[in-house]
Amino acid sequence: DSPSAPVNVTVRHLKANSAVVSWDVLEDEVVIGFAISQQKKDVRMLRFIQEVNTTTRSCALWDLEEDTEYIVHVQAISIQGQSPASEPVLFKTPREAEKMASKNKDEVTMKEMGRNQQLRTGEVLIIVVVLFMWAGVIALFCRQYDIIKDNEPNNNKEKTKSASETSTPEHQGGGLLRSKI
């Protein structure tokens, strides 16, 4: 027995140049693929899409023309053969201008605003964590640098310190040279 025709055939995600057709098959039938026929309402040309080795229940229709009526049929494919075609589904693609008018680029929905807010919060959190990590790295570097300088065998600090304690450039015997005016 060949499978029954797909049921609940619907067209969704309708855009000016694309759409998605989806369908259901009866529960007890083993289906290994599908075949979709798509044609413009008043034109005899037909596009045929066939997929096997898949349990998918939807297919993207692409390269559609805007503001055009289409008819779609879906057939199920099993090992025994193809089902009869589903009931025809008629749909019309919108104009590109209609789609743009329905949602302006400047229009932002509340859902998108929430998503943007979450993104900003996440970005700020990452920046703060990175700054704290860098501050820690710099503090550790300074600490290690001081330890290395203190343990250096030719420590020039002591030589400079002892020479400056005993004399000044003005007077070699120590102390400042004072003059009476």
From TrEMBL:
GO (cellular component) term, any one: extracellular region
Record CDD domains: FN3
PROSITE patterns attached to this UniProt entry: FN3 (PS50853)
Bias-annotated ranges (Gly residues): 172-181
Record Gene3D superfamilies: Immunoglobulins
Coiled-coil ranges from the UniProt annotation: none
Biased composition annotated in UniProt, kind: Basic and acidic residues: 151-162
Keywords from the UniProt entry: Glycoprotein, Membrane, Secreted, Transmembrane, Transmembrane helix
UniProt cross-references to Pfam families, sorted A to Z: DUF4808, fn3
SMART domains in the cross-refs: FN3
Signal peptide: none
Transmembrane intervals: 124-142
Annotated compartments: Membrane; Secreted
Primary localization class, coarse: membrane
Domain Fibronectin type-III intervals: 5-96
Location of region: Disordered: 151-181
GO biological-process terms attached to the record: positive regulation of brown fat cell differentiation
Record keyword NAD present: no
UniProt key word Membrane: yes
Membrane topology, from the record: Single-pass membrane protein
Protein name per its UniProtKB record: Fibronectin type III domain containing 5
Gene source species: Jaculus jaculus (Lesser Egyptian jerboa)
Lineage: Eukaryota, Metazoa, Chordata, Craniata, Vertebrata
